Amino acid sequence: MNIGIILPDMGVSQLAYMAINQCNICANITDDSYFIFFEDMQKPCVKPTVACMNVSELHTFEGLLVSTSIETTLTALSCVTNSKKIFYVWDLEWIRNKNDFLYNMKAFRNEQVELMCRSEQHAKLVHNYSNRKPSLIFNNFNLLALREHTREKRSYEGLGRAIKILDEINTKTEDIK
User: Fold this and answer.
1) Dihedral of alpha carbons 112, 32, 16, 49, sign
2) Would you give the DSSP letter of residue 11?
3) d(CA 127, CA 108)
4) Is 56 helix (H, G, I), strand (E, B) or coil?
């Protein structure tokens, strides 16, 4: 599986440190491929051992795409790509500087994006703000938890599609009889 993380930048911040560090760790212990996309070029706070690209390369990415801010989520949504999009709410940015409610809701309320949070407190505040419950809470950019969640969900969706197809075949067989 390809897993891509979209960061505002890779400079010194808790978000960049945790994301790069988790990508480096997961790249060594899993068979998945990890990619970091950034909006602004800065010297990385930690040396990444995974592929790093500008967001202008998002259109070529296929896999699980994790955005980390309102801006990166809207960037991911504007790209025509065959990726599953996840908005991992790392920061409650609307409290400090992003006060345009309707603009923010384009990221929070979009059904193409699965909403996830970093803590129980964040999840409550996000639900109160956007009236949408996050599907998963995982601390400190735990990519292994995200990976397991998406694999389980994909297997359930696949099972659901298989059951639906079998039901259609059974219905057609009964119609023939």
Assistant:
1) negative
2) S
3) 10
4) helix
> 78-130: per-residue pLDDT in tens?
998 889 999 999 999 988 877 789 999 999 999 999 999 999 999 999 999 99
Q: 177: helix, coil or strand?
A: coil
All structural domains of the chain with their residue ranges: 2-142
50 CB-near residues (< 8 Å, 6+ apart): 23, 24, 27, 33, 34, 35, 36
Q: Report whether CATH 2.40.50.140 matches the domain 2-142.
A: no
Residue type, 70: I
Compute the distance between CA of residue 32 and CA of residue 23 in angstroms, rounded to an integer.
Answer: 10
What is the amino acid identity at position 41?
Answer: M
Say if strands 51-54 and 2-9 run parallel, antiparallel, or are unpaired. unpaired
Check pLDDT > 90 for residue 145. no
- Looking at this protein, which amino acid is placed at residue 79? C
- Contact at 8 Å (CB) between 116 and 136? yes
Helices 101-108 and 120-130, axial angle in degrees (round to 10): 120
Question: Helices in the chain by DSSP H: which ranges?
Answer: 14-29, 70-78, 93-96, 101-108, 120-130, 143-176
